[in-house]
Amino acid sequence: MTLTAIAIFGIGALLYKVIPVRWRGWGLLIGSVLAIYWLQPALPVRPLDFVLPTTTLILGFVGWLFTRQEPTLDRDSLLTMGVVIAIIV
Fold first, then answer.
1. What are the b/e assignments for 31-65, b being 16+ CB within 10 Å?
2. pTM (2 decimals)?
3. Potential cystine with 73: which of 6, 38, 69, 77 (Cβ 3.0-4.6 Å)?
């Protein structure tokens, strides 16, 4: 990790402290998804730079679906999935 990455994460932490409490969950979600892609090392096989983080997110989502208590997806879950898919695209 370079000093640039550390500085950006530090600025992100300060911004997280400044945003209103009700938006912190969304900020954490968006920051986490972006960090997964940004921290992926450069690989010799070019498509893997995108495929591996995307697969990680898909596996996390599938695991969440299997461990849910409710049988149906509610509005908040669908909105969260839409935000994550929009960030990926």
1. bebeebbeebeeeeeeeeeeeebeeebeeeeeeee
2. 0.81
3. 77
